[in-house]
Structure formats: C-alpha cells, structure tokens
C-alpha cells in the first residue's frame, strides 16, 4: 500500500472542503500514474485514521471519485482504482515535485514576438516618476464617477447587460459619445459610424488586422509610435518610414512613395505626434487629403489626445475633411480620464465597422457596460467637457512652466520645441548626452523617466525622451529639471 | 462674397465656444475647396453683423485661423485665405451635404468576415429573455463591490496606475487569483504562469494567434463553440471536427486524426462543453493527457465555467495533469460575477506567457486596474468563494427544476441530458421541431431565446438550443416551458 499519509496533504484552513482536497489529490495521483488501474485503495477507516480525519470525510471523497468513474467500489471488498482507465506508466513522483507541467517543457512552436517593445516595469521607491504623458489624477472627478457607478450597479442594469451583446459599445454610450465627437471635432457621424474599444490600441489593432495581409506595405513616420508600428509588423506588414519634421509627417515624401510603391495603409498622428509632439501643418493636411482622394488610400488617423490643445484653437482632424470614407479615425477617452479608464473608439463607414465589430467579437466579446454607463452620463451632463476645460487650463500652464524651465536650465544638452498641445514634451538630447545613460543616472537619483523606455527593443534610432508634464506639479518639474541639470552639468 | 450667413451655422447652446465653431467651419470650407487660397474673407465687422455676433468673437476666430496658417491678415486690407495652401478644385457643397465622407464610399479593401457569427440583438419588450448561460444578478454582492471601488478610486491608486504598465494584470490581482486557482483546480502555478485578459475570449484569441499560421490545422469539436471556431478560422486555420457524445469529445477519434494529420492545436472544453453541456469522462481525460504527451500537442483547455459543478465534486482540469506544459488553460471570472465584469485569464509556461503578454500589449495595452483591485480584494477576503458557494446552491436547484419540468412537459419534442454543472441546458429538439421556427414563435409570445442565435451564420448543423437556467427563477422557467409547450403541442 502506498504511503497515503505522505501523499495526501490536507489543509484544514483551505476554503476547499477537506473531502474535496482528498478526492482531487487522488485524481492527481491517478493521472500521474502513481495509482494504477485496479490498484486497491485503503479502507475508509484506515485512511481516516492515517490522516486524522473522520471516516465520513473519506467516504465522501471516495463517493465523489466513484461518481466520476475514477474509483470502483466492490461490495465487501472495498475500493479500488477503476479498471477502465487506460494504463499509465508509473512515474516516480520525486522526479517531478510539481503538480503541473508549467515549468517550460512545452514542445510546440509559437511566435517569440521579440520585435514588440517591452514596456517599463516600475519598481517602487522613486521620488518622482515622469510618465509618457498621462492626466493629472488630482483633478479627476472621483465623487461624480463613483455616484454613476453606484447608480449603475443595480440588478436591473446587471440583468439587462447579461442579455445584450453590444460588442461595439452600448447604444446609450455611443449616442452620447457621437454627439460629443461631432461637437468637438467638426465631424458629422451617426452612432453607427462608431465602435467602442479598450483604448485606442485595440482600435488600431482591429483596423490594421482588417486591412493588412502579410507582405503589405504600411507608411509610418520616423520616428513613430512604437506600439502601433509593432502591431503592423505583427500582422505581417512591411514598414515604410517617412520622416517627421517640425510641421509633422513629410507629406511630399509620402507622395513620392505613393507614386512608386503599392501602399496598403498610412498611419498618422496629426496632433501631437508620438513621440515627437509635433502637429501636422494646415498645408500638409490639405495636401494629404488630396492624396487620400487621388490614391484612395486607407488611413488610420490616430488622434489620441486631440482634446488637449493649448496654443491655438484646435486643428480639426483629417476625418472632418473630404476623404471619401478612407480615413479611419481613432481616439481615446483614457487621456482625459486616466489610465484605469480605457475607453477608445473607432470611427469609420458603416461597412467597415460591420467587419470591425465582427473581428472585435473574437477578441473582446463585450464592452465594459459599467464604465460606458458612468462616463456616458458624464458626457451627457457636460461634466466631461467641463473636466476637459479645467484640465486644459492646468496642463497649458504646466506646459509653459516646463518649457520655460527646461529651455533656460538645460539648453546646453536639450533641444526642445514647445508643442501645440498634448501631455508631453519631446526632449531631444544632444549627441554627447545619450538618453539611456541619462535615464539610468536619473534613476539612481530618485527620478524614474519612463517616457522613452517604450522604445526599448525597437529599431528606431533617436536620442529623445518624452517628458509627460500633465501630471507634474511645478515642484515636480523643478525636481526633474534639477536632477537632469546635475547629470548633464 | 460667399453667403457666410448660410454657410456658418452657430449653435449658441453648444459646449464649444462660438468663435471655435466659426473657425472650425471655415476650415471645413477650405478643406472642401469652397474657400480657395487668396480668397478674401468678410471683415470682422460685416461677418459679425451677418451672424448676429459681437465683433470680438469673429476676431477671435480669425486670430485662431491665422495662428494655424489657414488665414493671412494683411494690414489695412483685411483677411484672406492663406496663399500657401495647395489649390483645391472647388466642389459644390450641395453635392455633399455631409461634413464627412463616412457614407460608405471607401475604396480600399478589407476583410468582410462573414464567417464570424452574428450575436443576437435584443429589442426591448420581451416578458422573458433566456440567455446562453449567465449568472443570477440578484445574488451579486453589489454593496461589497461598490465598497471596493470606493476604496480604490482615490488619487494614489489612479496616480500609481498611470506609471505602471502591467499589461498582463496587476501583481496584487495575479497573486490573489493564482492562489484561488491553485486551491480550486488542483494546479500548482505561480503568478508568472498567469496573464489577465478581457474575458476568456481574449485569451483564446491571443493563444491561437501565437500558435497558428495560415493553413494550420486545428482540432475542434462538432458541434463546437462558434466564437472560438471563428477565431481560429480568422487566423487562417483549417478546422478538423471531431464528434462530441455524452462522454465529451471523442478522444479515440482525436487519436485517429493525430496519426494521419499534422495537427497544430487542439481546442477543448472538458467541463460543460459549449454548446452541448457534456463533461469529458475520466477515461477520456487520462487518454487525452497521454496523447498530449506522446504527440507534444498544443492544447487550449477552455474551462469557462469550472466553478459551477452540481452533481459531483469537480473533475479537475486537464491542466492539473501531466501535460509537459502543452496545455494552455483558459478561464473566466465573468461567469461568476456577471457580464459587466470581464476578467479572464490564461495559464501557461512562463515562456509562452512572455509572448502572450507582448501580443496583448498590441491589442489591449493595460488591464482594468479598478476591476482587478475590487475583485482581487473579494478573492482575498473569501467573499468570492462564498459567492460561488451560494450561487452553486441556487443554480443546482434551478438546474434540477428546469430539467424536471422540461423532461415531464416537453419530452415529445426535446431530448435532454442533465448536465453535471454549468449554467445552461442543451435542448435537442426532435427533427419535426426546427429550432429557428421555435425561436421565432416564442418571440411572438414574449419569450426571447438567445442561447442558439450564437450559431447564426456558422456552418454547424444541429437542432439544439442552449437554455441558460442560472438566471431564471422557477416562475421564469415555468413561463418558458409553458410557451414552448404551446408552440410544440
């Protein structure tokens, strides 16, 4: 008889009933080939004594195993492992102390995906973390959002949401959001032109996955948004890079490429380009719209932080121009609300959205009806717009302060052009100041700079760093600049 | 001079400032080629008079346009459209009353995706909706979840979440969930074997996308889970179907296929298979584990409603057996918590998860830290397990009641085997009672049956209907059975 006293480990403090623990562990022993078909099991009395348990507990375990066909009970003869189980070669359980095989022995092939940049891992203990450009959480209307959640988390809403399958977003949220977008972006869309996603990223992935086939060529900017670039590559596309200068993506260069290559898709961030923060000039916008119509070019317009424009009144998106339906407009509410609120969207023709919603159903079967309900109510009440106004005022001032201080204190090592909006500055370090070194030294001084670590593992060569100012107080900015000054002195 | 009074529509109730409305609309007119380069604009005084506005408002609009290079101001000569803009052929604005091109004229190619099943759209006004198998919302611990949200929605949590990039789930949630899974499923995983996703669906898609290349062959069941099947097809795979009987997927048939074909992946739901609700027998489980080791076969084990097993104590997942790391185990908390709480997960080797997290970053850059925080706290406090216990008791009783009533009242038209767990019954209608007709007639009588509409648009031929009992009271079940009895009498 096997040493069941040692084989079966009972945890009386576990939330799993003891008899279930016994049954589960016996099944494992069978699956491992330690208990073989037709092998006898100890009597309930003897096993109970061995384990210091009541006999009824062991009986309950055995009864479960009988019901599951693992064990047979022979009248007056006791219990034995079912004879019907296929014979398994016994393995020494000491060879593999793990209950599972999740130790990396998997033999099947899968993609390694080393081309996708690693995102920064933040260890605790830094005095200040400068992010890639995220909102100030101190002004977030927490109480108002909570009030909406409280209203929504009722049985009726939960019940209703179980029966509905609004893969592309709930009707009421799309209604509220489409009005907001029409008012703020010079669009004239209907709710059926709108699909809700988990952040802009899911919208980029879905749009690209519908359009791209392996081997297709995609026009992107240089430098560009690394996560979008990686998505296009993951889908098998080849990236054709076009330079970005102070007026945005070089549209003349785009035209040159279009004349010679068969381009399947253009990806562009016209407002506050990532990572460089530049805005596409009016002349280039107009020219690009012309090219879109001439070449019937599919375009993903990523307008992730349109809502934050400080210097001038907003440039309108390409999507508000004449593009014959070729511009897929993608945006995000996350930049307004903060990282935990991942609400993105895609705007396109009803035809394209039909397919986009279908593809989305394979990736994320339902949207977040609670978040949509809460934020939809804030949009309808005007609270959302008021928050944007408040944030713009704060961020505009912080932008000014950051640009002023960096320009005056760090001009020896940094080139900086003030962005027209957004939440980050693009610090171009001069050649003698390699960014990787600066990040590492700053880290030792309590300053964690995460706004360029995005680019770890990607092939772009630049010596720049995104400095997310929106969430930094003047004191924070002063601290960061002081550290950088010390490092670069 | 153009009739600006008619071209510019000012909405004084809009949340967009009037001067911005004017500026935006003038840009649109430029982009449409209605206002051409070097064209003169009306004076601020005259346009203000035309529109019934203060002159300063118009000046603010013009100043914005000048800052954006759309308009030039010539001293003492007034304002004109910038000469630098590329010339655009004028179009009559009456040809296209829409401000955008989202009218379906897009000329680029994209996948139609007609192979993906359409999900049911539920119009209001039904007396009862029978779903595919979702939890009873009346027992959901709303107050406890709200309390957690209230605790979490503070500045510190929001601030922390902005700086962190836990693509695969927050550390604290993975810590809580991995313990729960080890305790309940006979697993022995570490947090690094776990990735959090938006529901099980995202985990299925990501796992399949890492493994499958176009042309690869995937073993699935017949009938099978339509949304997973569609995902494999979308990724270019060919489906090889193996029958399902009362003991689950036919593993002998699986072996036959493995002997002759190069199978890249097997997809299986061992507990409460979708749609048929059958559970894989012990003998077949053991045999399948043997095949997995022999063929080093990659397996997606979809165990979406493991937590609900009524008849016996749980069968353990394949993942708890010896599989050399080849089983990717996928589950969901949504079936416990309800549709709005989309928390799924993938368990695999650390190696596979490295790639899975990378791919996830392209699809959904961050997890829902609020939901993870709230539900993680419920898992740690034991509230989650208590809720499962409560739900199991209720669902078990409802399952009994439903099976009893349907067996006694509808045996003329329905074959039914009582499932060992889960949230739905699989009603196999006899040939004379086509399901499509029954759904349509029931609908007229106030009963909306959604548990088979999943299959609309897919190629599976069966005459079955999923009857989600978990969310139905005895009165609900009685109503549904009465309607079905009337229809099939």
CATH architecture of the largest domain in chain A: 3-Layer(aba) Sandwich
Low-confidence segments of chain A: 87-100
> How many beta-strand segments of chain A?
15
CATH topology of the largest domain in chain A: Aspartate Aminotransferase, domain 2
Total domain units of chain A: 3
Structural class of the helix and strand makeup of chain A?
alpha/beta
CATH H-level homologous superfamily name of the largest domain in chain A: Type I PLP-dependent aspartate aminotransferase-like (Major domain)
For the biggest sheet of chain A, the summary is: 8 strands, mixed
Distance between the termini of chain A: 76 Å
CATH class type of the largest domain in chain A: Alpha Beta
What is the oligomer described by this structure? homodimer
In what range is the share of β-strand residues of chain A?
Answer: 5-15%
Question: Helix share of residues of chain A?
Answer: 40-55%
Number of helices of chain A: 17
Cross-sheet strand order for the largest sheet of chain A:
4-11-10-9-8-5-6-7
Radius of gyration of chain A: 30 Å
Q: Overall 3D geometry of chain A?
A: elongated
Largest interface, Cβ cutoff 8 Å: A-B, 146 and 146 residues
- Look at the structure and give the mean pLDDT of chain A: 87
Protein name (chains A, B): HTH gntR-type domain-containing protein
GO molecular function, one term (chains A, B): DNA binding
Pfam families (chains A, B): Aminotran_1_2, GntR
InterPro entries (chains A, B): Aminotransferase_I/II_large, HTH_trans_reg/aminotransferase, PyrdxlP-dep_Trfase, PyrdxlP-dep_Trfase_major, Tscrpt_reg_HTH_GntR, WH-like_DNA-bd_sf, WH_DNA-bd_sf
């Amino acid at each position: 008889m096997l040493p069941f006293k040692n084989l079966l480990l009972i945890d009386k403090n576990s939330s799993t009933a003891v008899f279930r623990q016994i049954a589960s562990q016996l099944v494992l022993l069978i699956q491992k080939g330690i208990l073989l078909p037709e092998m006898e099991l100890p009597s309930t009395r003897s096993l109970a004594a061995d384990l210091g348990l009541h006999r009824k507990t062991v009986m309950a375990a055995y009864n479960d195993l009988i019901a599951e066909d693992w064990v047979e009970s022979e009248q007056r003869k006791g219990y034995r492992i079912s004879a019907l189980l296929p014979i398994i070669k016994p393995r020494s359980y000491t060879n593999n102390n793990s209950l599972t095989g999740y130790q990396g022995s998997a033999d099947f092939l899968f993609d390694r995906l080393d081309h996708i940049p690693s995102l920064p891992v933040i260890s605790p203990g830094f005095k200040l973390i400068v992010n890639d450009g995220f909102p100030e959480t101190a002004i977030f209307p927490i109480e108002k959002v909570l009030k909406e959640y409280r209203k929504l988390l009722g049985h009726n809403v939960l019940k209703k949401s179980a029966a509905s399958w609004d893969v592309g977003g709930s009707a009421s949220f799309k209604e509220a959001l489409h009005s907001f977008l029409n008012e703020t972006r010079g669009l004239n869309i209907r709710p059926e032109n709108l699909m809700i996603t988990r952040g802009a990223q899911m919208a980029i992935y879905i749009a690209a996955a519908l359009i791209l086939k392996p081997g297709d060529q995609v026009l992107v900017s240089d430098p560009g948004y690394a996560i979008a670039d990686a998505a296009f590559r993951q889908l098998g596309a080849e990236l054709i890079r076009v330079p970005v200068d102070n007026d945005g993506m070089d549209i003349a260069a785009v035209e040159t490429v279009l004349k010679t290559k068969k381009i399947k898709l253009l990806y562009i961030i016209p407002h506050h380009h990532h990572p460089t923060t530049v805005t596409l000039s009016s002349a280039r916008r107009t020219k690009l719209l012309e090219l879109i119509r001439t070449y019937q070019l599919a375009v993903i317009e990523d307008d992730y932080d349109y809502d934050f424009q400080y210097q001038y009144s907003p440039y309108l998106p390409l999507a508000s121009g004449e593009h014959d339906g070729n511009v897929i407009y993608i945006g995000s509410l996350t930049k307004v609300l903060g990282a935990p609120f991942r609400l993105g969207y895609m705007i396109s023709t009803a035809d394209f959205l039909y397919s986009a919603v279908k593809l989305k159903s394979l990736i994320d079967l339902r949207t977040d009806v609670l978040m949509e309900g809460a934020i939809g109510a804030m949009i309808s009440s005007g609270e959302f717009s008021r928050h944007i106004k408040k944030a713009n005022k704060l961020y505009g001032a912080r932008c000014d302060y950051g640009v002023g201080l960096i320009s005056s204190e760090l001009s020896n090592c940094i080139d900086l052009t003030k962005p027209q909006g957004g939440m980050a500055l693009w610090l171009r370090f001069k050649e003698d100041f390699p960014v990787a070194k600066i990040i590492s030294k700053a880290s030792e001084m309590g300053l964690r700079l995460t706004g360029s670590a995005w680019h770890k593992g990607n092939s772009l060569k630049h010596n720049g760093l995104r400095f997310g100012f929106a969430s930094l107080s003047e004191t924070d900015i002063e601290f960061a600049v002081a550290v950088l000054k010390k490092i670069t002195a």
